[in-house]
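Hi again,

Forgot to attach this to my earlier email, sorry! This is the prediction with iron/sulfur cluster bound. I've pasted everything inline since the attachment limit keeps bouncing my files.
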Amino acid sequence: MSKEVYARLCVTMAKRGGMYPGMDIPEFYELVQELFTPQQAAISNDLPRGFNSADVIAAAVGQSLDEVAPALEEMADKGLCMSIKKGDTMRYAGPPFVPGIFEYQFMRGTDTEKDRKLARLIRNYKEAVNKQSKPQPDRFPAMRVITVNRTIKAGNTIHTYDQVKQYIENMEPLAVSTCYCRHQAKLIDASSHCGKPDDVCLQFGHGAQFVIDRDMGRQIDKDEALSILDRAEEAGLVHCTNNRQEIDFLCNCCACHCVILKDALAHPKPGLAVNSGFMPVWNFELCTACETCIERCPMEALNMGSDDVPQVNLERCIGCGVCATGCPETAIEMQAKQDFIAPPETRRDLKAAIKARVK
Ligand code: SF4
Ligand code: SF4
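C-alpha cells for the complex follow:
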C-alpha cells in the first residue's frame, strides 16, 4: 500500500509542476518517505485543485472528516500543504515542491537532526533532477529581479511593479522568515555559509499569513520591512520574486546559494534568465576607480576598462542595482531600458506566458 501511495505521489508532484516536479527516481522516494506519512501522501494525491475546506477534501479522499481534518492541519504545519482562512473556514491547497514544500522546510531556521536529513535529501533530489533534465535555454523567465529603488535615475518612469516599497505599503500582513537557501546550505555544511544575513525573506498578504499561522515566519510592521530591505541592500543581496506584477514574496538572494541566481550566473547571458528592466549608468566624473562595484556585482558583469573606469557587459547584467548601492561616490544610477516588456500581471498570465514559450 505505501509503495503504491508514494508512486501515485510521484505522478501528483509531476502534475503540480514547478522547478522540481515529481520524477520517478530513487532520490524521490527517499525524500518523500521522510516528508510524508502514507496517510499524508494519500491525502495529497486526492487534493482537489485550488483551496478547499477539510470537508470537501475528506469527500474527495474518501475518508471521514475526523481523520482528514487533523491530518490537514499537521500537513500545513509541516509545509506539505498551504492553508488560508476564509471567514471561519480553513482551506487547504497542494503546492509544488518549488516554489512551495522545499522552501517551507527551512523557513523556521531550526537546526535538528531531521532538518539536517531533509536538507541532504532535498539537495540529493535536486541534483538528480538537474542531471536528468534537458536544458531549456529559451524558457520564459519564472522569476525576476527588482532593482533597488533609491538607485533609479531621476526622471525615469517607475512602475508600481518596479517598487518594492510600494508592495510593502500596500500589502497586509507582512512577514519575515529565514532564507531557506542559505539555511539549507548551512544545515548540510556550516562552513559553506557566505556570511550574508539570513533573516531577510519577506512575504506579503496570504503568503505572509500562512507563514505567520504556521510559525515559519514572524509578523513585522512596515518600518521593520523597510529596515530589512536596507540591511539586504547593504549586504549586496539581490531582490528576487515571481516574474509577475502581483507578488507574494521577496527573496533577498546571494549568487552563492540562491538557485535562481546560481543558474543565471552559469548562463552565458544571465540578463536573459532574470532581469529587472533597468541598467546601470555611470557618472565617470565622480568615479574614483575603487572597484567596489566590480567586487559587489553578483553576475560578474563588470570589469575595469582601459580608461580606468568600470565597463558593464549588458548581456551579463541583470539590473539588480547592487553595484549602485555599494558605490561610495554615488557615481552609478539605474536607468530603465527602453525596450523592456512589463512582467505578466497575474499568476495566470505568467503561466500562460511560460506555456506559450514552451510550444
Ligand atoms: S564603486 Fe563607484 S567609485 Fe568605485 S569604481 Fe565603481 S563606480 Fe567608481
Ligand atoms: S552590473 Fe552587476 S551589480 Fe550592477 S546592476 Fe548589473 S548585475 Fe547588478
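The chain has a mean pLDDT of 91. Residues 280, 297, 299, 301-302, 312, 317-323 surround iron/sulfur cluster (ligand 2) (CB under 6 Å).

That should be everything now.

G.
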